[in-house]
Amino acid sequence: MIVTIILFLIIFGIVVISHEFGHFIIGKRNGIRVVEFAVGMGPTLFSFQKGETKYSLKLLPFGGACMFDGDDGLAGENGEIDEHSFLAAPVWARIASVFAGPLFNFLLAFIFSLIVVAFNGSDRPVIQQVVDNSAAQDAGLLPGDEIIKINGERTYLSREITLISALNRGEDMDIQIKRDGQIQNISLTPRYSEADGRYYIGLISGEEIRCNPFQVFQYSVYEMRYWVKMTYKSLLMMLQGRVTKDEVSGPIGIAQMVGDNYEVAKSYGTSVVIFTMMNIVILLSVNLGILNLLPIPALDGGRLVFMFIEVLRGKPIAPEKEGMVHFAGLVVLMVLMVFVMYNDIMRIIR
Predict the structure, then answer these.
(1) Residue 140 — left, alpha, or beta (φ > 0 → left; ψ -120 to 50 → alpha)?
(2) Over 67-128, what HEC string results?
(3) Tens digits of per-residue pLDDT, 18-63?
């Protein structure tokens, strides 16, 4: 339990600090004063002042904040706007400062992907085994076939095949393969497993490769593509009602995931634990980056919507009106967070 908590806090800290540092450094570069740089939420455990900025560590590990002077939409006590206020900055400087948080999450994920691929290589979508009496066997797929596309969707990693298969609900699949240097097209219909409650193609794929310097960059891009694809497809499934409440996790569920992965990895040695935790950082960082870009009030994406409206109108929306929208969004997000945490706790104690 202690190791799980420590690992979770390290992972949480890396992901959150990278996000808030993006806001911080780009805001500073644009002359915007940062009032507070906080990691966590709730009561302050520790803080110190350096220059104009207060640096804080909060009690609850659920997020963080880079608070700009004036980003609450309010002017100073005398009604004047300071030249270093968020309100005084040009609109594109404000857009850059807000967008930088998610951008730095993507940069962090890419850097970690480079490290993971450089040391561990990657997995090409080459079939290693075809299951007997499966849809894949009946369709004529063979070990050694490289899967190029599924339903027109390019596949670069074997995990992409696993993802597409996991999301399939029995729909036909048009699979493009490369066999002996020749491109062939094969169609099949995944078969349902009563035991697992899902459809299977009936193959095992994954040809491990070691990457040269050029391939490290190439396959790191493929890694990022995979995690982005997994995140937005998961969000799409949520909107379609195909995800149950037990499949949604908050901080407690993530901590449990960290612990479960640590228990599996520790028997293989320290290096496996490190790379396993790095993959979790990549997953969470991409998730945080994408979620924050959603056009939801109180999130970075919601704030960006108002700024782009300002670009189109040539003038900002009244700060008090924008503030009310973001406050309402914040309330909804807090209620959702409480629900997810409660659901995490109930799932653990069941």
Answers:
(1) left
(2) EECCCCCCCCCCCCCCCCCHHHCCHHHHHHHHHHHHHHHHHHHHHHHHHHHHHHCEEEEEEE
(3) 999 999 999 999 999 999 999 988 899 999 999 999 999 998 877 8
Q: Which contacts (CB < 8 Å, 24+ apart) does range 221-226 have?
A: 222/122, 222/156, 222/157, 223/113, 223/116, 223/117, 223/122, 223/157, 223/282, 224/106, 224/109, 224/110, 224/113, 224/286, 225/156, 226/156, 226/157, 226/159, 226/160, 226/163
Q: Are 30 and 95 in contact (CB under 8 A)?
A: no
3-state secondary structure of 49: strand
Instruction: Look up residue 338 and give its two tokens.
Output: 């409480």
* 158: CB partners within 8 A, 6+ apart: 123, 124, 125, 126, 205, 206, 207
What are 119-157's pLDDT values in tens digits? 999 999 999 999 999 999 999 999 999 999 999 999 999
Q: How far is CA 189 from CA 171, 250, 330, in A?
A: 6, 35, 44
